[in-house]
Structures are given as structure tokens and as C-alpha cells.
Amino acid sequence: MTSAGFGKPDDKRRRTIRDVAAHAGVSVASVSRVLSGKYSVGADTRSRVLRAVQELDFVVNAHARALTSEQPGMIALVVHAVTASFLANVAQAVEQQAAAEGHLCLVCTTQGRPDREVAVVNLMREQGARAVLLVGGVVETEDYPARMRQVAHALDAAGSRLVFCGRPAPAPDLPAAVVTYDNEGGAYAMTSFLVSAGHRSILFLGGDEGHTTADERIAGYRRALNDWAIPFDPALVQPGPFTRTFGYQRVKALLGKERTFTAVFAANDLVAAGVLRACREAGVAVPDDLSVVGYDDLPQAADFVPSLTTVRIPHDELGRAAVRAALHPEDPVDDHVLGTHVVVRDSVRPPRR
Amino acid sequence: MTSAGFGKPDDKRRRTIRDVAAHAGVSVASVSRVLSGKYSVGADTRSRVLRAVQELDFVVNAHARALTSEQPGMIALVVHAVTASFLANVAQAVEQQAAAEGHLCLVCTTQGRPDREVAVVNLMREQGARAVLLVGGVVETEDYPARMRQVAHALDAAGSRLVFCGRPAPAPDLPAAVVTYDNEGGAYAMTSFLVSAGHRSILFLGGDEGHTTADERIAGYRRALNDWAIPFDPALVQPGPFTRTFGYQRVKALLGKERTFTAVFAANDLVAAGVLRACREAGVAVPDDLSVVGYDDLPQAADFVPSLTTVRIPHDELGRAAVRAALHPEDPVDDHVLGTHVVVRDSVRPPRR
DNA sequence: ATGAAAGCGCTAACAG
DNA sequence: CTGTTAGCGCTTTCAT
User: Fold this and answer.
1) Fewest CB within 10 angstroms: A58, A302, B18, B148, which?
2) Are residues B300 and B188 in the same domain?
3) A184-223 residues touching B, CB cutoff 8 A
4) Which residue is nearest to the C1' sugar atom of C5, using CA?
5) Could you tell me if residue A113 is inside a domain?
């Protein structure tokens, strides 16, 4: 390997504002003023400082700066995993909006371990993060609300903003903002869509039990059923991980027996991908023999075979809105729960009679 | 207690180590010692400090700490976009490894704008990042090597490590580490695989011109052709963006005319997805009428129809190795260029004769 | 317009 | 083992 260049005879000590001042023949105060740009400085002094900065290739020490002045601070993004397409999309939007507003973006992953979430939040307190965004649904364990209450107050006491993004507030009156999208409404719309296509027996598949996102989607599904006067069959809701594997295995098993449902509402597109594959292997034609829909509208959903009818979530808007809510708490907002809508493709057809 | 005059319950000022010391009735040094854990402290003192920390819900100021002691520092990850599946996977691995070694992970995106790359690196210098990882290929513009040389030296002077990850070093003897995977070898193996299946006319599709990754893959393709004594036809290499859309549109156009090739080697799986869709729409059966392969082995590649034969890149190993190279420069490493291999699925068949 | 100097919150000698 | 104190690099009064 090329460790060759590392041992430069150069003094590794970072240059300080003092070095610059000496080099330019001015005081440290002047250098600071030039660098911050918000004070009037003589033209001569300014140019000498600038030249010295150039020649010494100086950059300020962000830590020292943070210690004295009110700093921009970073935006911390806490997600389950960056590899989850939905989260990556939100992260992308957050990152862009944060950059646009002059903030750095720290991404932390929890791997779904709840304890990591509070550990990460404490880390952010240490860093003096300007805001912490908790993105994506969670499994609401018993102690979750209490833990969040504590976290919210700790952050608030440190002058940081907490934002729940794509996740409901665990309790009312928390010092935190909430920016979500209409999970329940999207599921309602999708279920209605299936019903109007003639389906009466719809399997809802996937979504961890107690997971906020899953719960909301199931709630929408049930409300639609209710509104259409279709009796709810508990056996038709089969919770499970939000994974391709779960969708595949569960449907594979179900396809073995006598099948009662004519459509599958997968909890998300990943689950739907598994369902489609299971159908293909079992020789069940989609949508002719079985209709399948998903939720999220991942980029690849359009490429599924058949292309997937699913619910679109406005990732970009979500990410941007979350950053704005974090940075401009006082701003009036049009809507804190963003709309979702059904994207119709080729995976639904009226059931065979 | 502190701030007698300002006893407001909602005093937003962050608590300091001094508050803790006062509350515990010990000196600030003792508090610092207990917190850092690396000094011997009396049991009584320790417990009093710990209790005070609890009661005050205190967390240290990471900036102040960074100013005095040799700190862990963060690992900065610079990528084109987090939404690119390959980059997200590497980011995931980096994040995990960094966390395991006690480092925070900052993710910055460049949106492919080269100027953003150097801006971001300067930001990292200000933050005193422990390491900066430049992940993924780039289009090597004319001034790219010079810019990287400057960046590398600036980072080196600040005591940070620069790591090129999944990208070759722009010049030799740079104070930076390189951790890559065998792009050329993977393409060679894949091309050989197609040739042994009987293909003699293979279209290489996609990959921006001048992009390091694309160049390496094309090099492997050409070397294989050469080794099999198959004349190289320049018309059979069609560069373009690494996108689904490009694969789709280009193949759509090509399928209109008389077709000479019997197989398509897509520059990556995204391009392959576009190719498959174009084929489906044009009624060209894959793999019966045309073989299609990709590169990357995205999670969804197994779900393509037909499932895609592609080249697997060891994302996880790549991310972990990059972090290790950054954090332990002196460690001996088995290999700085990780192996790739062909994953055989259902999208290749001997050409019709 | 510029310089001197007092901290920001913390750690690390250095005494005791 | 514990307390005192001198900075880390920078910003910001306060003088000049």
C-alpha cells in the first residue's frame, strides 16, 4: 500500500488563526473579522489576511468556532438503515435541503435497535446538533413513549430541535415537530381501488406488529373495508417483516392451500416483490389469477413484472419539509402530513368469477 | 446552586462540567476524570459525580473536548448520492465499521459536481475529520488529478487520512490509501463467460465516458475479447449514463434496426434493468433471443425477469476495508483490491444459430 | 479600523 | 487520589 507520502517532514500541527495573523502582520482579531466577514475591515488588512490564508492553506477549526459563537450546527439524521430505499430517498432530500441552508448532515443508523436510538441522540447532544431527525416508522415498544419524552426534553434543553419524520409523535405536547405522510389515507385509497375493481377478499401481507407504519396502513385498509361494508376477516391480515423474503415465503405457503383471497396488499414494495416471485414460481398469473399491490413506489416498482400498482410517498417533500420544520420552527406550514396517492400500473385486474 | 439570579426552570444554557462539579461538590478535574474513565478516582467521588451527571442530565460538549484532547474525530463519507444502491451498501458497511471503532459518520453528497467534492473536503478539514473516504468512481476530468493532489496534501497536513474507495488513485505517491475492487477482472470474467456460452458479438452498453468505473469495465471486456481472439468492434461499445433510462432507450433504438449482437453486457444492473424492459416491450425474449448481463449484483437483480446474471461486488468488505485502511494505516492488509465474481442466473443462453 | 484581552467548556500537567 | 490552573483556537467586547 502507499503509506509512502504520509511521513512528510512538514509540521503536522494544524495552522491556527495565530499563524495567519503573524504571517499577515496583523492581529488575530483582524483575521477573525475578515474570516467571518461580518465586520468592517480595512481593504489593506483584508487583502493581507486573505493572502496569508491562501499561502498557509488555512481553514478554521470548526470546534473552536463552535465553542464561542452561535454556530450553524449539524443536522443529524437517524435511520434504521441507509440501504432501505425509502430512507435513502428521504436522506437524499434532507441532505440537499440541509446543504442549501448551510448545514452539514450526519447520518446515524440504529440497525433497528431501540437502545442505539437513544445512544445516538445523546451523541448528537454532545455534538451540539442543531436538529435531530428521526426518520421512518418504529416498533412502538412499551417504554418507547417514555424514552422519547426524555430524549425530546434533553434535546430541547440543549436548544436542539427534534423532528419525527415519517413517524407519529409518541405523545402529545412533546417539544418536537412532526412531519409525516398519510399512511392511513394511502392504504385507504389503495384498498378502495382494489374493492372497486371487484375484490372482496384482500390479503394484507407484512408489516411488523406494533410498527407505526404497519399499524397505520392496516388501519387504512380496515377503514376502507368498513366503508364498503365488507366484513373484516382477521385471518386476512398477516403481519411480518417488511422484507422480500417474508412476502415470498408466506405467499409460497399460502399458495399451497386452498386460496380464498383474490388480491394481495403487500405492506410495502419489497414484500410485493417477494409475492410476485412466489406467484411466478407457483404458476399463479398476476394479475389474471391474483392481483398484487404494494406501498412506497420504489424506483424499481415500475420494472416489476407485471409493473406494480402501488402507493406513492413524497420522499423529497418529506425530507425537505423535515429540514424546514427543524430549522424554521416559527414558519407557518401548509401541511405537516403530506399526501400519498395510488399509482396505477399493471398488477391489478378484476377477480375471476 | 448555580445561577442564583436566573433560576428559571427553562434556562436553555447547556450545562457544563462546572455545573456538575458544583452539584457534586468536587472539582471540575474530578468530573473530567470520571467522565473520561481513564484515571483512577475515588469510589465516593466517582459515585457523586455520576449522580450529579444523572440529575443534571449532563452530556459533555464534544467541541470543547475536541479542542483539547486527541479526539476520535469523524469519518466523512463522500458519495455521489446515497440513493445509488451500491453506494448505500458501502455507506452502510462504513457506518457500521466506523461505529464499531467508535467513530461518527458524516455523509456528504456531491451530486456529481466536482467542485462540491473539494468544498466538502475543506469542510472536513474544518471539522477535523479523522478520515475522508471518497467512494465510487468519478469522471476523470482534466484537472481532476491536480485537484486531488491538492486535496490529499491539505488533508495530510491536517493529519487526516484520505481514502479512495472503489476508485483508483488519480496519481501515484499521493498521501492517501486506495481500497478498490476488481472492476477490470469482473468484466473480463463476465465477458469470458459470455464467450464460452458461444457469444461472439457482445454489445457493451452504458458507462459515462471517462468514468473510472466504466473505463475499467470496458478494459476487462476488451482484454477478454482479445484473449479469445475475437476482433474488437468499436460500434459495439456504446457509452452513456449508468441509468435505467439510458439502457432502455438505447436498446429500444437498437432493436429497431438489424441486430448484430447476440448478447448485451450492461455497464451496471440499472442499465440492465432498462435493457430488459426494452426487450420485453419489443417482444425480444431474454435469454432465448438475446442474452443480457449486468454488473453490481443489486439486491433486486435476482428479481429481474429473467433473473440477472451479473458481477458481484463485495460492498461490505469494501466499506469495512476502507474504514480499516483509514484508521489503521500501519496494519498490513491482505488485499487492497477486492475480488469480484460472476453470479450466474437465468439471463444468458447460447446464441441461436 | 484595529489591537488587547477575556472567556467558551474541557483536559492535562502540576502540585499537594 | 484530588484540586488548581494553564491553555486548546477562536470570537467578541472594550479600548484605542
Assistant:
1) B18
2) yes
3) none
4) A29
5) yes
Q: Provide the greatest CA pair distance for chain A.
A: 90
Distance, first Cα to last Cα, chain A = 68
Please tell me whether residues B190 and B307 are part of one structural domain.
yes
List helix spans (H) across chain A: 17-24, 28-36, 43-56, 62-68, 85-100, 114-127, 144-157, 183-196, 212-227, 244-256, 269-282, 315-327
Distance A31 CA to C9 C1' (A): 23
Cβ–Cβ < 8 Å for B104, A108: yes
Where residue A88 sits, what CATH number does that domain have? 3.40.50.2300
Å from B17 (CA) to C16 (C1')? 23
Q: What is the pLDDT of residues A197-248, one digit of tens each?
A: 999 999 999 999 999 999 999 999 999 999 999 999 999 999 999 999 999 9
Helix (H) or strand (E) holding B254: helix B244-256
Statement to judge: residues B195 and B276 lie in one domain: yes
Do both A195 and A296 map to the same domain? yes
Phi, psi (rounded to 5 degrees) for B211: -75, 130
C-beta of residue A216 within 8 angstroms of C-beta of residue A190: no
Residue B12 lies in a domain: no
Within a domain: A25 = yes
User: Cβ contact (<8 Å) for A125 and B336?
Assistant: no
Q: Residues A32-63: pLDDT tens digits?
A: 999 988 888 899 999 999 999 999 999 999 99
What is the distance in angstroms between the Cα of A44 and the nearest Cα belonging to chain B?
A: 26
Query: For chain C, which bases have at least one atom within 7 A of a protein Cβ?
Result: 1-5, 7-13
Q: Which residues of A touch B96 (CB under 8 A)?
A: 109, 111
The answer to whether residues B190 and B251 belong to one domain is: yes
Establish if A298 belongs to a structural domain: yes
Q: Which residues of B touch A123 (CB under 8 A)?
A: 104
CB proximity under 8 Å: A 302-321 to B: 303-305
Same structural domain, A258 and A210: yes
A157 contacts B12? CB cut-off 8 A:
yes
Residues in B touching A126 (Cβ below 8 Å): 59-62
* Distance measured from the CA of protein residue A326 to the C1' of nucleotide D13, in angstroms: 31
Instruction: For A60, list phi and psi in degrees, rounded to 5.
Output: -65, 160
Count structural domains, chain B: 3
Residues in chain B closer than 8 A to A91 (CB atoms): 82, 107
What is the predicted pLDDT for the residue at A36? 87
Q: Are residues A56 and A203 in the same domain?
A: no
In a shared domain, residues A123 and A236: no
Which grid cell is A239?
403481519
